[in-house]
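Students often ask what a holo structure prediction actually looks like on paper. The answer is less mysterious than it sounds. You provide the chain, you provide the ligand, and the output is a string of discrete structure tokens encoding the 3D arrangement of the protein together with S-adenosyl-L-homocysteine.
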Amino acid sequence: MSSPRQLYEYLRRIGIREDVARAFMSVDRAQFALSGESFEKIYSDNVVITYHDGKVYSTSSQPSLMAEYIQEAGIKRGSRVLEIGGGTGYNAAVMAEVVGKEGLVVSLEYDVGIYKRGKEILERQRYGNLVYLNRDGYDGAWEYAPFDAIIVTVAVDFVPLSWAKQLAEMGRIVVPLDLKSVAYHPTFVFVKKGKWIEGRERFVTSFIKAEGKLGSLDEMVEKEYNALECDWQGEIYMDRSGMWAVEVLTASIGKIRGFFVFADGKGKAVYKFEKWRLCGNVDRLERVIMELERERFPGIERAKVAFDLDRENFSVTREG
Ligand code: SAH
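The corresponding structure tokens follow.
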């Protein structure tokens, strides 16, 4: 493929919506890529490097994956969209085409170097419905909320409360999560229903890792964990998928990955460097440990993740 038209035809062939495929044809990806990149690569279904300064880099994901994200998020004409991980703005521009004049895209990029380059490129395109900001995606964009969709194009350690709060009723979050315990970043799709945000794993994906608060759960967890007062503390070593452990903890635990809070409020557990560190109510923990050791639980793909906006924590329940 060596032209936007061919990219359009390819996206249509694999079943992408007409309006979405057309948006990919309207935005010239060459404008967002590094100079010297071949058209052959730019207009094909490839990851393209868009920024590289020796320290940080940014990439534009495969168009087919971004198209799937846009569809999963339910983005259409008139939608208000928040993008986390703006990069040099290619995906934001595509989404601006999809939502049209009646809609809005707000895109957040953390790195100032990438942001400056993105701003230059986007200013040439003159999108009246696209706001591009230099900000840690953790905070979202209160000033433009509510959003019908939040699209995250960087692997994050967790879903911050700000996103859940800035989402409209029945709004969707499409997000690759860095669960640490598996080598890829499974993409979860969450839907807001009243005080609940419910989600499931949808695709197997792999992204650049988030910087800033969205990528620093380990440090945050470490601090909180060290500050805990417990009757009992211990560590369990796990040499294989920690996802199983997440499932084990489903019946009783509040937050997904990192800082888990037992429903009875008596214990905490942290998964780090292939170890579970547990602290709290001994009876309860002994049961969890026994279940962990028996390894009889299925993986995260069979779990439903729910976020309770009132109690401000996640729960995971086993399905099927
Ligand atoms: N959507 C972009 C691809 C972005 S790659 C495109 O179409 O080109 C991921 C981007 O996320 C990188 O540019 C990286 O700098 C940015 N990023 C990393 N951590 C972030 C954070 N906490 N908040 C916002 N952006 C972040």
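The CA atoms of residues 146 and 168 lie 5 Å apart.
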